């Protein structure tokens, strides 16, 4: 029952992004030869033993530590031959995939598109082809008209309020009053 479920899960896993996904990306040899199961059982025993040592004295803890260090010294000459990739594979418990078969993403079609910002060179080339217009404001042949003239007050300069003009108006009103009498 467990084997059937695992086989079904392996067949269904990641079919949508791999060309020919049949199983998981790691090697199934660990499951077949039982090495992974043995390692899991060993870890359980180690945790259980350390839990039992919590209530014991320091002598038992030191003896277990010395046993582990002796065993590590026996294993170190064997482990030194491993390269960096092999150490990582051993740490993770799976081997690297030889050939990567991933499909490229589908082309995305977004609604609309942003305005393309043209360079100054491209704008200058486009303006060189356009005919010049007569600006009715500044009376020049240019690439602008009255609405977007760079000199908007060329025809009608702005008038500044004078105090002298106000006095002239008042004098005229007084003279008109005198005439009416």
Task: Supply the key terms.
181 residues; mainly alpha; two-stranded antiparallel ribbon; 7 helices; elongated
What do you see in this structure?
Residues 164-181 have a biased composition (Acidic residues). With 181 residues, the chain is mainly alpha-helical. Helix content is 52%, strand content 2%. The protein is built from seven helices and two strands, in the order ααααααββα. The chain has a two-stranded antiparallel sheet. The protein is elongated. It starts with a helix and ends with a helix.
SSE layout and pairings?
Elements: H1 2-12, H2 29-33, H3 35-53, H4 58-79, H5 84-92, H6 120-129, E1 133-134, E2 141-142, H7 163-180
Antiparallel strand pairs: 1-2
Region (Disordered): 147-181
Biased composition (Acidic residues): 164-181
The geometry reads as elongated
Strand residue percentage:
under 5%
Overall residue-averaged pLDDT value: 73
List the total number of helices. 7
Describe the main β-sheet briefly.
2 strands, antiparallel
Q: What would you say about this model in short?
A:
With 181 residues, this protein is mainly alpha-helical. The protein is built from 7 helices and 2 strands. The N and C termini lie far apart (125 Å).
């Amino acid at each position: 029952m467990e084997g059937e479920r695992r086989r079904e899960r392996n067949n269904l896993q990641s079919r949508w992004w791999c060309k020919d996904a049949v199983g998981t990306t790691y090697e199934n040899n660990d499951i077949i030869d039982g090495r992974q199961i043995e390692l899991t059982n060993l870890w359980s025993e180690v945790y259980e033993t350390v839990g039992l040592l919590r209530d014991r004295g320091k002598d038992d803890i030191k003896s277990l530590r010395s046993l582990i260090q002796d065993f590590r010294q026996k294993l170190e000459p064997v482990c030194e031959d491993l390269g960096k990739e092999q150490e990582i594979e051993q740490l993770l418990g799976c081997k690297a995939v030889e050939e990567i078969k991933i499909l490229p993403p589908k082309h995305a079609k977004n609604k609309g598109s942003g305005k393309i910002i043209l360079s100054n060179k491209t704008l200058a080339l486009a303006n060189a082809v356009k005919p010049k217009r007569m600006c009715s404001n500044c009376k020049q042949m240019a690439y602008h008209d009255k609405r977007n003239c760079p000199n908007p007050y060329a025809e009608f300069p702005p008038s500044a309020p004078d105090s002298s003009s106000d006095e002239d108006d008042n004098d005229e009103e007084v003279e008109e009053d005198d005439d009416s009498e």
